[in-house]
Amino acid sequence: MRSARLVRSFQCVVLPAMLQSAEYARHVFGSAPDPTPEGVGRAVADRVERQSLLYEPGRESVFVLTESVLRTWPGSPALMLAQLDRLVAVESLSTVRLGVIPWQQAVPVMPRHGFTLCDSEAVVIETFRGERVLDDPAEVAAYEDTFRRFEEAAIFGSDVRELLLQVMKDFRDLDGSATR
After folding, report:
1. Which of 59, 65, 125, 178 has the greatest number of C-beta atoms within 10 Å?
2. What residues contact residue 82 under an 8 Å CB cut-off, 6+ apart?
3. Distance CA 113, CA 94 (A)
4. Sequence-distant (≥ 6) Cβ neighbours of residue 37 within 8 angstroms
5. Max alpha carbon distance in the chain (Å)?
6. Paired residues of 1 in beta bridges
7. Distance CA 1, CA 130 (A)
8. What tens digit of pLDDT does each residue of 129-171 get?
9. pLDDT tens across 46-101, in order?
10. Which overall architecture, per CATH, does domain 6-178 show?
11. CA distance 1 to 8
């Protein structure tokens, strides 16, 4: 993934690795089978370090999520507010396109799992215990077609910012009710 110039990621359960805040990533790695504090710490540090790729000129990253990803949350509403704030900031980068398939929109294909395309060379599927990399050209082509269909169903730009701000409001409301 580090050498890819075009990264396209579809996620239907958890935020893409490249967009996760450190605290969100800590929950992701901490929920894997048999986590250790040292292992989780190393994995979080590596994930956050890899995110510098988002800022490199000459790279393009396209992320498509289902709205359920934004509303499935670990930890606290405050954690998600910080995470959503990060998404708003990253969405404004010239090297990033962030799209969301709103819950009101039917999905074009029933999602089975998330995946990340690295150029047109490989597909990465994250599992509880690591990553699986598929590089068979026919499989990569099938994932590219599936990604295109999800991308066509997603909203982008000001529409996605508006949705992110609404989800943030919903989490602020949750956070306020938790402190009453």
Report:
1. 65
2. 21, 23
3. 27
4. none
5. 55
6. none
7. 14
8. 778 999 999 999 999 999 999 999 999 999 999 999 999 999 9
9. 989 999 999 999 999 999 999 999 999 888 999 999 999 999 999 999 999 999 99
10. 2-Layer Sandwich (3.30)
11. 10
Q: What is the C-alpha to C-alpha distance for residues 95 and 85, in angstroms, rounded to an integer?
A: 18
Write down the pTM of the prediction.
Answer: 0.92
Name the token pair of 81: 């507010």
Quick one: pLDDT band at residue 127, thresholds 50, 70, 90?
confident
Phi, psi of 54, deg, nearest 5: -60, -25
* Residue showing tokens 């701000």: 165
In this structure, what token pair is assigned to residue 170?
């919903």
Candidates 88, 92, 99, 91; CA nearest to 63 is: 99
- Cβ proximity of 126 and 114 under 8 Å: yes
Which H, E and C letters describe the chain, residue by residue? CCCCCEEEEEECCCCCHHHCCHHHHHHHHHCCCCCCHHHHHHHHHHHHHHHHHHHCCCCEEEEEEEHHHHHCCCCCHHHHHHHHHHHHHHHCCCCEEEEEECCCCCCCCCCCCCEEEECCCEEEEEECCEEEEECCHHHHHHHHHHHHHHHHHCECHHHHHHHHHHHHHHHHHHHHHHCC
Cα torsion angle, 144, 145, 146, 152, sign: positive
